[in-house]
């Protein structure tokens, strides 16, 4: 039996794990960080951090893992770098799976930034000069913040902006929380609902990570249709090496490796 560790945290990683479970020569072990209270996960998952690179190296050796599939979210860069380093140290192959990022389309009014801190700078700047976004006439006052809960503190000092913050679980108790309202929900999201949210809350800008995939894309379509500008946070740099962008690609790569 070939033992494959799948690093998860996304719907795609669940699909990858379920498909790998159907390959008779492979025993799949999925790993989830355990951040959300009621995570959606495949069966037989191990939960919790490994303890950095040393912990992961030890785990790979102890569990006699033959191959690592990194199916973590494109913004979960720490685990991806750790997986790259640990797999090289143990001398086993590692494949990085990432769905492609979203590309700007006609009608999109995006400002692309490196991180959430830069996104906050853009929102602050437009308060003073109302022409930061294309066609912007009025100051942006109501922002739909769709970056999850971990980094909302980066926007807490923007007291003149009201934020609608969407997340799965409540923020940590010691988090700085921007002025506004929290909306608890888990993707995939629907275009009709996203349009309705933007209208009901009178949203005049969206902050989004460039996650790629279809589950969270409807807000980007709604923004395009409604002329709402988007501050789009670019993906962090990820380790080089073999990469695929769809679930079938993972399965084909694995079959090539083992047969
Ligand atoms: P991160 O910064 O890359 O990882 C932080 C730490 O969490 C890692 O060093 C590792 O702890 C642990 N960890 C992460 N993924 C793990 C996994 N699959 N199995 C075991 N331990 C894991 O990740 P993050 O941005 O905090 O995200 C946490 C999880 O949520 C990830 O699995 C990611 O795929 C998922 N997720 C993240 C986002 C996002 O926007 N960041 C969105 C959707 C889902 P040790 O160093 O102790 O091993």
UniProtKB/TrEMBL annotation:
Transmembrane segments: none
Pathway: Cofactor biosynthesis; adenosylcobalamin biosynthesis
Record flagged with keyword Oxidoreductase: yes
One protein family per Pfam: CbiJ
Xref: InterPro entries: Precorrin-6x_reduct
GO MF terms, alphabetically ordered: precorrin-6A reductase activity
Keywords associated with the record: Cobalamin biosynthesis, Oxidoreductase
PANTHER family from the UniProt entry: COBALT-PRECORRIN-6A REDUCTASE
Protein name (Swiss-Prot/TrEMBL): Cobalt-precorrin-6A reductase
Species, as recorded: Cylindrospermopsis raciborskii CS-505
Lineage: Bacteria, Bacillati, Cyanobacteriota, Cyanophyceae, Nostocales
């Amino acid at each position: 039996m070939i033992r494959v560790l799948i690093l998860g945290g996304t719907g795609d990683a669940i699909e990858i794990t379920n498909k790998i479970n159907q390959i008779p020569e492979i025993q799949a072990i999925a790993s989830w960080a355990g951040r959300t209270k009621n995570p959606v996960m495949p069966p037989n998952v191990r939960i919790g951090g490994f303890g950095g690179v040393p912990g992961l190296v030890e785990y790979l050796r102890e569990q006699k893992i033959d191959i690592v599939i990194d199916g973590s979210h494109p913004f979960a860069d720490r685990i991806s770098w750790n997986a790259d380093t640990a797999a090289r140290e143990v001398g086993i192959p590692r494949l990085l799976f990432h769905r492609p990022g979203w590309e700007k389309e006609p009608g999109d009014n995006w400002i692309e930034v490196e991180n959430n801190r830069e996104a906050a700078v853009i929102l602050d700047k437009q308060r003073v000069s109302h022409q930061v976004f294309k066609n912007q006439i009025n100051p942006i006052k109501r922002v739909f913040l769709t970056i999850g809960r971990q980094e909302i503190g980066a926007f807490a000092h923007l007291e003149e902006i009201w934020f609608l913050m969407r997340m799965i679980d409540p923020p940590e108790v010691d988090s700085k929380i921007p002025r506004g309202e929290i909306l608890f929900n888990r993707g995939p999201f629907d275009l009709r609902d996203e349009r309705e949210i933007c209208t009901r809350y009178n949203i005049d800008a969206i902050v989004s990570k460039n996650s790629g995939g279809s589950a969270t894309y409807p807000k980007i379509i709604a923004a395009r249709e409604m002329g709402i500008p988007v501050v789009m946070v670019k993906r962090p740099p990820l380790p080089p090496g073999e990469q695929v962008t769809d679930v079938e690609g993972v399965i084909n790569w694995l079959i090539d490796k083992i047969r």
